[in-house]
């Protein structure tokens, strides 16, 4: 079990640039989640995939954000025309549907984004 | 809508002292409850979870939590703090078959030698 991995771990960009983050879930997990964590706050839900289908997007996910999970394995989160308010830690988590309603979400190390 | 409240954004204890981190949930139906720990610049690691099987839940690293429906609480405790316990702790809830976690704002635990 190699755990959830995320790449890059850190990203510094200038306002207006596009950025893309990658998440590789635990191999047998069919559910994948993205959360955003700002300083002094707990993680907030952004979006959720079951296999390759994106089943829900939070209102936090503006039109500048897009997430994909093309083959039901890894996922990407893209932010277009970044703004300083996008600076945060972006966390990916995965879980296995079938574990039951109390299924555990396993988190990756996160990608810390700083928009200058 | 469900919510999670963590009382105390910062708790400081001495090494060897009792650790008590408070969490209250707001839900018409008892949710599933989780405690996660986050070390600096790392992701979240599950400490323990409540899934209605037992009200007293034991987790990793000597932590445990007790679900109290009458108090809508799920406080995290550890009898004796260790320096390595210094981290941020998050309480989270999930309702039924809903998939997303709702987190509290976190409690930063400092352990003094």
Radius of gyration of chain B: 13 Å
Order of helices and strands of chain B: EEEEEEEEEEEE
Q: Into which percentage range does the β-strand content of chain B fall?
A: over 45%
Low-confidence stretches of chain A: none
**How far apart lie the N and C ends of chain A?**
36 Å
Shape descriptor of chain A reads globular
DSSP helical segment count of chain A: 0
pLDDT averaged over residues of chain A: 92
- Calculate the terminal CA-CA distance of chain B, rounded to whole Å: 41 Å
- Quaternary state, please? heterodimer
Main beta sheet of chain B: 6 strands, mixed
Structural class of chain B: mainly beta
- The proportion of residues in beta strands of chain A is over 45%
Key phrases:
heterodimer, A: 116 residues, mainly beta, four-stranded antiparallel β-sheet, 11 strands, 48% strand, B: 113 residues, 12 strands, globular
Tell me what you see in this structure:
The complex is a heterodimer of chains A (116) and B (113). With 116 residues, chain A is an all-beta fold. Chain A has strands at 5-7, 10-13, 19-24, 31-37, 44-50, 53-57, 65-68, 75-79, 88-95, 106-107, 111-115. In chain A, strands 2, 4, 5, 6, 9, 10 and 11 form a seven-stranded mixed β-sheet that branches. In chain A, strands 1-3-8-7 form a four-stranded antiparallel β-sheet, with no helix packed on it. The radius of gyration of chain A is 14 Å and the shape is globular. Chain B is 0% helix and 51% strand. Chain B is globular and about 40 Å long. The model of chain B has no long low-confidence stretch (mean pLDDT 91). In chain B, a hairpin with a 5-residue loop joins strand 7 and strand 8 (64-68). Chain B contains no helices and twelve strands. Chain B has 113 residues and is mainly β. The chains are: A mainly beta (116), B mainly beta (113). The interface between A and B is medium-sized, with 28 and 28 residues.
List the helices and strands and how they pair.
The complex is a heterodimer of chains A (116) and B (113).
Chain A: E1 5-7, E2 10-13, E3 19-24, E4 31-37, E5 44-50, E6 53-57, E7 65-68, E8 75-79, E9 88-95, E10 106-107, E11 111-115
Chain B: E1 3-5, E2 10-14, E3 19-21, E4 24-26, E5 32-38, E6 44-50, E7 56-58, E8 64-68, E9 73-78, E10 87-94, E11 102-103, E12 107-112
Parallel strand pairs in B: 2-12
Antiparallel strand pairs in B: 1-4, 3-9, 5-6, 5-10, 7-8, 8-9, 10-11, 10-12
């Amino acid at each position: 079990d190699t755990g959830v991995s995320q790449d890059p771990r850190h990203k510094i960009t200038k306002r207006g640039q596009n950025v893309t983050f990658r998440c590789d879930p635990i191999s047998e997990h069919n559910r994948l989640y993205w959360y955003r964590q700002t300083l002094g706050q707990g993680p907030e839900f952004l979006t959720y995939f079951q296999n390759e289908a994106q089943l829900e997007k939070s209102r936090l996910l503006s039109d500048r954000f897009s997430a994909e999970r093309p083959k039901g394995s890894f996922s990407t989160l893209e932010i277009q025309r970044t703004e300083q308010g996008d600076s945060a830690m972006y966390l990916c988590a995965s879980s296995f549907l079938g574990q039951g309603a109390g299924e555990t979400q396993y988190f990756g190390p996160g990608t810390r984004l700083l928009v200058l | 809508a469900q919510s999670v409240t963590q009382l105390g954004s910062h708790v400081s204890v001495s090494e060897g002292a009792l650790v008590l981190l408070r969490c209250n949930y707001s839900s018409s139906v008892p949710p599933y409850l989780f405690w996660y720990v986050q070390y600096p610049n790392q992701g979240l690691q599950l400490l323990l979870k409540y899934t209605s099987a037992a009200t007293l839940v034991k987790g990793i690293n000597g932590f445990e939590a007790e679900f109290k429906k009458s108090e809508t609480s799920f406080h995290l405790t550890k009898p004796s703090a260790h320096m390595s316990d210094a981290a941020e702790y998050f309480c989270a809830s999930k309702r039924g078959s809903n998939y997303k976690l709702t987190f509290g704002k976190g409690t930063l635990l400092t352990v003094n030698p």
